[in-house]
Amino acid sequence: MPPESNLQLAKKNHLLAALPAEEFDRITKFLEPVTLKLGKVMHESGDKMSYVYFPTTAIMSLLYIMENGATAEIGIVGNDGILGVELFMGGETTTNRAIVQSAGEAFKMDTKSMKAEFTLGGMFQKMLLRYTQALIAQISQTAVCNRLHSVDQQLCRWLLLSHDRLDSDKLVMTHDLISNMLGVRREGVTLAAQKLATRGIIKNIRGSITVLNRIGLEDAVCECYNVVNAEYKRLLGPGVSRAFA
Amino acid sequence: MPPESNLQLAKKNHLLAALPAEEFDRITKFLEPVTLKLGKVMHESGDKMSYVYFPTTAIMSLLYIMENGATAEIGIVGNDGILGVELFMGGETTTNRAIVQSAGEAFKMDTKSMKAEFTLGGMFQKMLLRYTQALIAQISQTAVCNRLHSVDQQLCRWLLLSHDRLDSDKLVMTHDLISNMLGVRREGVTLAAQKLATRGIIKNIRGSITVLNRIGLEDAVCECYNVVNAEYKRLLGPGVSRAFA
DNA sequence: AATACATTGTGTGTTAGCGCACAGAACGAT
DNA sequence: ATCGTTCTGTGCGCTAACACACAATGTATT
């Protein structure tokens, strides 16, 4: 990915941005920019991918699909992370589906180069492992939230997680799609979204939700969001790469 | 841990058993046997541990504790794994509590030695990373199961996961404790356990549950159990260490 | 402008699980 | 043997979320 503009774009991905200059320069040589459309399936359960993806503006959703077709999201990957941890964790495949939840850009890196760099044991490896731990925290909190919290709260959590990974306040997303992520009924999402709308926190327009009052959302959300957020900051936040170099 | 008998015992842990002879010999030098009582707290949320643990007969439960005291289990670690993945993943701490769910034995290994061995990049590292992926699969499935399945089904899943990691058919465990793990009411567990008992699948005695009909349990469980089980076998099952040596 | 389609809004009845309250049963200590 | 404690069993009202049905509104197509 030679063009200078791309190098700047690559830094929008937090994992890449945290690399020391030398590693960044070496690794960006293997990166290729891709544009991802909403709904694109990055991999199905059991698929072996030939690339990992570093999102910059795109957001991916990790979904589990039950035998009866019911779905539930286990995690969200945006410019804070990487899609395809199973490739360096050694399992090669995973039991979930990854789809593009918000259209945008990402950089792909072929598996072979990725594994070669990972094996070097440098900051690249360290960042990927730390990210994987953050992902574990996110998935864990999803489990807890699914168990103990209401649809209202979970919608807030989901909106905040998405909003964090997005440049805009407008989430292009139908209630039906959100219901698939949360693993609840579409009507349940409509109802919860209405409640937030009457409080002036979001605006519901056909096919999209706009965040009007971010603070209001943060007030309405359950502790799960903050726990995950704090853990991401702790593990991957500014200064991390220096702290344990 | 010199005594010969301990070496045999160490092989009861699947991760250790999968190591090539040379690595096994080197690593067992760092292992110390410990006996763990039911209910012992291995670490609290945010605690930095000085050891990782390889259970042989003990079982640990990873619990998240909400601000209001409500709890929910995110995963179970037995002789198939290791407690303390956060130590080699780089985060040092985690947001959950680990408690001993079933009393028994484990081997502890000090963090320093563990990290040194991990960094060597041998089979030890590979097995730990593969195990971590399996754990991710388990946590993910917990999230999905919490969302989409009934208490009845979840109790079956939980009983099977525990039974798998145990030598005996008798689980020393009150309904109250199980309810803390599943994040449901104690009465809900009592009810679900009664249903299984009337079908002759388990026997409920004060303070313990005995599995009478393992096949019956497997028939009653949701797909979640099988998915996780298959993933553990795929990632860590017999022949794995040879397959990618 | 008319039509088809996708999305959202709303109502009705049902159910799983909750919170609370308390009774009975098993166990442990003195 | 008795007492206190820890478990398990049971009942009752309540609520969140479900399943299903269908109306109302946008948006795209022609």
Q: Oligomeric form of this entry?
A: homodimer
Average pLDDT number of chain A: 95
Give the count of helical stretches of chain A: 12
The rounded Rg of chain A comes to 18 Å
Largest sheet of chain A: 4 strands, antiparallel
Low-pLDDT parts of chain A are none
Spatial sequence of strands, sheet with the most strands of chain A: 2-6-4-5
Q: What fraction of residues of chain A sit in β-strands?
A: 15-25%
N-to-C span of chain A: 27 Å
Structural summary, described in words:
The structure is a homodimer of 245-residue chains. By secondary structure, chain A is of the alpha+beta class. Chain A contains twelve helices and ten strands. Chain A has helices at residues 4-10, 14-17, 21-28, 85-89, 111-119, 123-148, 151-164, 175-182, 186-198, 214-220, 223-236, 240-243; strands at 31-36, 41-43, 51-55, 59-65, 71-77, 97-102, 104-110, 170-172, 202-205, 208-211. Chain A has a four-stranded antiparallel beta sheet. In chain A, strands 1-7-3 form a three-stranded antiparallel beta sheet. In chain A, strand 9 (202-205) and strand 10 form a beta hairpin. In chain A, helix 6 runs antiparallel to helix 11. Chain A is globular and about 50 Å long. Chain A starts with a helix and ends with a helix. The first copy, chain A, binds a DNA duplex (30 and 30 nucleotides) through residues 150-151, 174-176, 184-188, 190-191, 193-194, 204-207.
